[in-house]
Amino acid sequence: MTTSSPALGCIVRTPDEVKQAAGLAADYLELKGDMLCVGPEDIQELVGLVRATGLPAAAMTSPLPRRFKCRVVGDDADHTRALTVFRDMCDRAARFGVRTVVLGSGQARSVPDGFPVDTARRQFLDFVSQAAKDCESRGMSLTLEPLTAAETNFLNSCAEARPIVDELAGTGVRIAVDCYHVASEGLNVTDEVGVAAGAIGHAHTSSIPRGSMDFREEIQTAFVAALRAAGYTGGLTVEEDFSDFGRQAPPTIEFFRRILATDAEAGASR
């Protein structure tokens, strides 16, 4: 019996990081949406830089960059504007061949104090439903990412995201599970991945806390094992805040290669 590992990716946040990703032992790159907020000539140059790495750009995160201050819930919600930004970001990402869009965007979905949560939930459902259609029309899939309470007060766990995704059944929306968010909220990674089983469309991981380069091997091992147990075979992106990408990214990718290989061997022996 053989067990395949998820493809291993790495997020890139700047053109310099893209350049340094050439030769990285990853399977794909994930683009930070903020990096794509440039003019046509710069986008074309960036496309060339990504192609030069030899790695596909399989995913994009942050499709509602904070600079645009989009709001999709609350009295100040403006779906017309937010969807305009979202569609533009997806069109930009399409030039790189992106197929998975990860919607975190905590600022856009945070519920104002005193605003009815049920109303916010309906607003969010309406926005995500339309965003999913926009992704589908571009050959992309939309994944919804639970975030930490420090980033938003709405959808902080897979247990909270699962009912949303289930209600949107048929739209193609799935869950993006992030080991850092799960651990930061003090949640059990096995339980969180388990509740998302059958609806996982993407996965992220990083050091805990992000940027610390403390990867907490026991948590990462449990996370990868839980993904396998859930039947997930998609991509696992290292979403790290590298202070020195060229020096830190290669050993980080190798660390997760080892975690994935060890887990695959354990799965094959069962």
From TrEMBL:
Q: What sequence ranges are listed for the domain Xylose isomerase-like TIM barrel?
A: 20-252
Q: Which UniProt keywords apply?
A: Isomerase
| Record-linked InterPro entries | IolE/XylAMocC-like, Xyl_isomerase-like_sf, Xyl_isomerase-like_TIM-brl
Instruction: Identify a single GO molecular function assigned to this protein.
Output: isomerase activity
What Gene3D superfamilies does the record point to?
Divalent-metal-dependent TIM barrel enzymes
Domain of life, per lineage = Bacteria
Name the record gives this protein? Sugar phosphate isomerase/epimerase
In which organism is this protein found?
Micromonospora eburnea
